[in-house]
């Protein structure tokens, strides 16, 4: 992520946004509200409107808007707590929220978008969710974290930029208000960067391609751009490093842990679902709840131990970063360990309950499908291990 520019003033008057309540009580209430419709949206695959509205009303979707833009500018630790609470309620809502919060973090860092455009976006956020997402992956290229340049092209014209191309895995689907589209210009030499595209621009077509194991309500569909026109000022150039584009999602900064946080929430929800089942399940042959057996108690201890590991890594690392910024280089490794622990916690619950945990009538089935998606977010495990190993082997001791 580019260097934070907190000294850059806003040139337009901005409204004051809601400061989210991140107390334990408020976040628990948020989880409950979002969870109420999670199973319904998981089955229908529709945009989880009710959960997003609940998050919006508490100011959680705009928590990272900078203070200079009228926002609360929540720190990474607060953001992680918000996303964990949302993930415990509905992982699809949490993923859409994580992308939105990350987009605002980027604006906080760079101030790149036109002030009047961003001011209008913030004003609209007073009335309802105004969702953003950086749309980068492509059918042929895959995820940009693996390197390469996009096939999506922005052509310079007197009217601004004309964008053509197709993207994949565009989370939020038609619920997005703005697309932050990664593309290459047709100039010589070409430049690469993000283009801010209003979702209602002519030439945008959504393709109903999302039919996934987990995060089914995230609406992570394909989208194509056919001669989509945006103003010249809607381009944020990203410098190439040694001729290579560096995906902001793979850089060593606290935002790397944002997506991991939501899966800590999924593991929490799995623990609670396991405990509720164990307390209420009374087999005839046993004559008492299975929660009273040592076997189930040991499993509960294993689940909690994995959750303690994930939470300690997530929140402990974010706390340490303020005093030890050099720890940022370890964030990819921390993300890997959080993912492993979150998955292990849910899998332990499912393995212990067997068929009961694999039926769609029980939430553990959904939590298992959702938590497996943590592996997809960059940096992925092999890339993180490679970078970490190279750093160790190249360091002078």
Task: Explain what this protein looks like in three dimensions.
The protein has 397 residues and is α+β, with helices and mostly antiparallel strands. The protein folds into 3 domains: 24-128, Butyryl-Coa Dehydrogenase, subunit A, domain 1, CATH 1.10.540.10; 135-237, Beta Barrel (Butyryl-CoA Dehydrogenase, subunit A, domain 2), CATH 2.40.110.10; 252-394, Up-down Bundle (Butyryl-CoA Dehydrogenase, subunit A, domain 3), CATH 1.20.140.10. Helix content is 44%, strand content 14%. It contains 12 helices and 8 strands. Strands 1, 2, 3, 4, 5, 6, 7 and 8 form an 8-stranded mixed sheet that branches. The protein is globular. The relative contact order is 0.12.
């Amino acid at each position: 992520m580019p260097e934070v520019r907190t000294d850059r003033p806003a040139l337009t008057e901005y409204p004051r946004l809601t400061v989210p309540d991140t107390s334990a009580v408020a976040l628990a209430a948020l989880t409950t509200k979002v969870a109420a419709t999670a199973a319904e949206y998981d089955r229908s695959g529709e945009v989880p409107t009710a959960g997003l509205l609940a998050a919006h009303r508490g100011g959680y979707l705009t928590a990272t808007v900078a203070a200079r833009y009228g926002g609360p500018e929540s720190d990474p630790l607060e953001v992680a707590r918000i996303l964990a609470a949302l993930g415990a309620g509905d992982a699809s809502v949490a993923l859409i929220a994580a992308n939105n919060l990350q987009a605002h973090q980027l604006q906080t860092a760079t101030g790149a978008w036109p002030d009047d455009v961003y001011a209008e976006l913030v004003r609209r956020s007073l009335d309802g969710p105004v969702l953003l997402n950086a749309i980068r992956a492509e059918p042929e290229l895959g995820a940009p974290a693996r390197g390469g340049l996009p096939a999506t092209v922005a052509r310079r014209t007197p009217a601004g930029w004309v964008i053509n191309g197709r993207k994949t895995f565009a989370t939020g689907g038609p619920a997005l208000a703005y697309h932050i589209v990664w593309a290459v210009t047709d100039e010589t030499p070409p430049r690469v960067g993000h283009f801010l595209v209003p979702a209602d621009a002519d030439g945008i077509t959504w393709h109903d391609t999302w039919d996934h194991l987990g995060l089914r309500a995230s609406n992570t569909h394909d989208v194509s751009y056919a001669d989509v026109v945006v103003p010249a000022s809607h381009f944020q150039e990203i410098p190439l490093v040694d001729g290579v584009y560096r995906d902001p999602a793979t850089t060593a900064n606290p935002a790397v842990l944002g997506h991991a946080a939501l899966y800590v929430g999924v593991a929490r929800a799995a623990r609670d679902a396991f405990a509720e089942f164990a307390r209420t399940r009374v087999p005839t042959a046993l004559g008492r709840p299975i929660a009273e057996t040592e076997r189930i108690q040991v499993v509960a201890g294993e689940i909690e131990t994995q959750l303690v590991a994930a939470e300690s890594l997530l929140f402990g690392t974010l706390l340490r970063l303020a005093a030890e910024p050099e720890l940022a280089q370890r964030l990819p490794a921390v993300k890997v360990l959080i993912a492993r622990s979150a998955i292990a916690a849910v899998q332990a619950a499912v393995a212990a309950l067997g068929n009961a945990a694999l039926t769609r009538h029980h939430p553990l089935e959904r939590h298992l499908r959702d938590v497996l998606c943590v592996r997809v977010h960059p940096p992925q495990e092999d890339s993180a291990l490679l970078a970490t190993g190279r750093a160790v082997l190249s360091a002078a001791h």
